[in-house]
Design goal:
By secondary structure, the chain is mainly α. 58% of the residues lie in helices and 0% in strands. Helix 4 packs antiparallel against helix 5.
């Protein structure tokens, strides 16, 4: 998997792109949380659930169906509140943020792949382009050289591209305000 850092940065970046107004900052945090949420499936390791099962790591929780369910449930819970973004835009953001988790994981150098189409198809997938070093599972395993290697690859392949996109957005918005 990619680390919590990469997932959360990508989720927050998507939020800033889709909801650029500063008043929506709580939804930027919500999108970051949704982007990390699929890794709640690591509890399965403690429950002795096989990695390659439907309920295993990178299984159903990493699927597009799960992203639809998460986005729908969260919009039903928080959409429509005073100051909330339009429901359709919020749903699209939360779906993309949650689905982005599997996208990053499919770009890593390890694991069994991502069950994007679960529960309809249990096949696990990787992308042909896999530059992100796979993160160890567990904080204890993350501390050290392996974690440092993961963070270096995420800076290069996730954080810097996100920063670049946000800088472009800021320049475009600044130009629009001036015009």
């Amino acid at each position: 998997m990619a680390s919590i850092v990469g997932h959360c940065v990508l989720g927050a970046t998507l939020a800033k792109l889709l909801l650029p107004e500063r008043r929506y900052w709580p939804y930027w945090l919500l999108a970051a949380a949704c982007a990390f949420l699929p890794d709640a499936d690591v509890v399965g390791f403690k429950l002795h659930i096989a990695y390659d099962s439907l309920w295993g790591h990178r299984g159903l929780s990493h699927s597009l169906v799960a992203a639809v369910v998460v986005a729908t449930v969260v919009v039903l819970l928080v959409g429509g509140r005073a100051g909330a973004p339009p429901r359709g835009r919020l749903w699209a953001l939360l779906f993309l943020a949650t689905a982005s988790h599997g996208v990053l994981d499919a770009m890593t150098t390890g694991g069994l792949g991502v069950a994007f189409f679960s529960p309809f198809d249990a096949e696990r997938h990787f992308f042909g382009f896999r530059p992100i070093a796979v993160s160890p599972i567990g904080i204890k395993n993350f501390l050290g050289e392996w974690g440092a290697r993961v963070l270096r690859s995420e800076v290069k392949w996730v954080l810097l591209p996100c920063a670049l996109v946000l800088l472009v957005q800021a320049a475009v918005l600044r130009r629009q305000r001036v015009a």
